Amino acid sequence: MESFSLILAIVVITALAFDFTNGFHDTANAMATTISTGALKPKIAVALSAVLNLVGAFLSVEVANTISKGLVDETGIRPEVIFAALVGAILWNLLTWLVGLPSSSSHALMGGLVGATVASAGFGAVHGDVLVTKVLLPAVAAPIVAGVASMLATRFSYGIGGKAEGEATRKGYRAGQIASAGLVSLAHGTNDAQKTMGIITLALIAGGSIAPGSNPPTWVILSAGLAIALGTYIGGWRIIRTMGKGLTDLEPRQGFAAQTSAATAILASSHLGFSLSTTHVVSGSVMGAGLGRKGGVVRWSTATRMIAAWVLTLPAAALVGAGAESVTDLGDWGTAAVAAFLVASSFAIWKFSRREVVDHTDVVAESAEPAGVVTTAIAAVTPPPAGLVTEGLTATIPAPAAEPAPATPPAATV
Fold first, then answer.
1. Cα 34 to the center of its chain, rounded Å
2. Using CA atoms, how far apart are residues 103 and 108, in angstroms rounded to an integer?
3. How far apart are CA 394 and CA 392, in angstroms?
């Protein structure tokens, strides 16, 4: 095994901690729609997703190579820079998990790495062409492409199925949804677990443990796969609730269309080495599926908050990463101070989350997010197909007031 210094060991442990947060932060990508439609019980869903994330970690190293060899100049990076990047990524993951927003763990990692690298070696150490072509452009295109594909797939499924809404039809789509959810989990392991592999490999190169240009060692692949699988099994219930119920309400066939479209996009990007955000892809697919059914609506207030988080992820993580790098540059005591800050901040966020606990027992609770004027108007003019339950819409229409009872004349007095 490679020789390790203390700082390199700290970086590897921190990278695996990020991988763990990536797991529970992104569980919703694979299983939120499956849980919300009742295709799988919550605990079974996250267990299945965890196993397939682990398997997916062994399928490819293309994304890992994009991070370890392509994004920044690996010859001028110190292990402290990697550590600072991970601090920014972990804190952003935890903050967005706390408020239940499905932001991108991938972009948090990219942002932290870019910010820390710029603070350490200047803008010249960042390969701008790779950042644009393999990170920024996919970030914009992925949710749009996946959303359009999901919307078309949803309309096609309703078109060929007509008004068939029997129990047999629902069971068929639920079975398909379980298969497609498994495919998304496999794709997530193939794409997201590799990001941690790449960051650990970059740290090993920076620390002189392996030669520049090396592929991730086997122990790195295994440990990254196990970390993301464990995080997935913990279940990011807050984000699952937002993705499954807070964004739109899905029927089984919509969930099947959304997950199939997302898995296709993620697997294709992994093959091409794109550091794609699985969160962006799945969120776009869910919104596309919501719009693909007549009467289906998207809660745009929730979607707007998600998109705002997407825009802020890269710069916010970059600023924290740059700040952390500036402190670690002061020496060992600076690195220790950053580590203490990370532990204290993580504990404070976890402690704050205990004020309102969300777990598998209430993850499918109806969203408290109001539908809004636009959503209600769309639902009113495009009624859903016959046989679908529409309590959410009818509940917004007040019942007619009861006729007042006729006044009783006063009793005659003698």
1. 15
2. 8
3. 6
| Displacement of CA 289 from its chain's centroid (Å) | 17
CA gap 70, 21 in Å, rounded: 24
Res. 348: pLDDT tops 90: yes
Q: What is the pLDDT of residue 351?
A: 92
Instruction: Enter the pTM of the model.
Output: 0.76
Rounded to 5°, the CA angle 94-103-82 comes to 60
Contacts of 289 (CB under 8 A, 6+ apart): 33, 150, 151, 153, 154, 248, 250, 254, 255, 257, 258, 296
From the CA atom positions of the chain, what is the Rg in Å?
A: 24
- What is the Cα–Cα distance from 194 to 405, expressed in whole angstroms? 72
CA 342 to chain centre: 22
Mean pLDDT over the full length of the chain = 78
> Taking the mean position of all CA atoms in its chain, how far away is CA 218?
26
Q: Give how far Cα 23 sits from Cα of 52, 191, 298, 390, Å.
A: 12, 12, 26, 34
- Residue 234's Cβ-count burial label (10 Å; 0-12, 13-18, 19+) is middle
Residue 398: strand, helix, or coil: coil
- Picking from 174, 209, 206, 193, the residue whose alpha carbon sits closest to that of residue 34 is 174
Q: What is the distance between the alpha carbons of residues 287 and 303, in angstroms, rounded to a whole number?
A: 8
Residue matched to tokens 């203490």: 340
Average pLDDT over residues 242-257: 75
Average pLDDT over residues 232-261: 79
Q: How many CA atoms lie within 13 A of 361 on its CB side?
A: 1
Q: Which tokens is 399 given?
A: 């019942």
Predicted confidence at residue 212, as pLDDT, reads 78
Q: Compute the distance between CA of residue 78 and CA of residue 120 in angstroms, rounded to an integer.
A: 9
- In 3D space, the residue among 92, 89, 75 whose CA is nearest the CA of residue 127 turns out to be 75
Q: Angle, to 10 degrees, between the axis of helix 167-206 and the axis of helix 218-234?
A: 140
**Burial, 326: exposed, middle or buried (Cβ in 10 Å; 0-12, 13-18, 19+)?**
middle
Closest Cα to residue 62, out of 374, 227, 347, 273? 273
